[in-house]
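[#protein-structures] MJ: dropping Cilia- and flagella-associated protein 410 here for a structure pass
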Amino acid sequence: MRLSRAAVLAQAKAAALDGVRRLNCCANLLFLSLPAQISICRDLPNIEVVTFSVNGISDLEPLHRCQNLSELYLRKNNIVSLDELFYLKALPRLRVLWLAENPCCGPDPHRYRMTVLRNLPSLQKLDNQAVTEEELSQALVDGVEITAPPARRSVENGWSESSACSTAGATREPRSELLSCSLEETNKTQEELDMKPVPRDKYSSFFPQETDCSHKKRNNVLNAILLLMKELDAEGLEIIQQTVARRLQAFQKKELQEE
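AK: finished. structure tokens for Cilia- and flagella-associated protein 410:
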């Protein structure tokens, strides 16, 4: 599925795409179908902060036109190759990148970090960890320089064959894996959104440990809703409150009828 113009404007509360400065699509329900498409980013010339964590994104090419981008959160997506960094090298203002928990990170954390820093030496923070001068110097030795975009053998229906191959493994697993509901995962997302972490004693009441797939999916949706509620104003929250009240009344009425 693609992130539409209407969805971006609604989320950013902007009248036009060139007025969008911040975009938060963390754990977005639009991206439950792989591969997630972010082609709309080509039309966001003034975007400064983008949060795309916990989705199914595999292609970073649309971001190369976002020349004002300073913070980019891509944790836990489906970015297979570090060659995708080629598109970020053209972003002069990029200072914060969160790329952890993608397949491209590989089994060697040091090699991964050194490669990212060699290609993006202007970063001040990588994966929520400050970048040091010593690391930047070491990256020139231990990192791999990326000089070309990732190879994509063919393009069909808007995405590449190589992306299709890379996502094959992911699609074999339950979709709920894209939106993990562990306490650790939830609090990482909370941190990205500048929200307080969920206390352990309250977490179990939000997300009871269930093994049934439908229950996991329900919990994933609930997790996304709770995170996105931060974007609502008072009027929006009142609408949700009224809707929830009506739904609860309907469930209570149904339970009485069944008894």
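MJ: nice. The radius of gyration is 20 Å.
AK: one more thing. Residues 5-142 form a domain with the Leucine-rich repeat, LRR (right-handed beta-alpha superhelix) fold (CATH 3.80.10.10).
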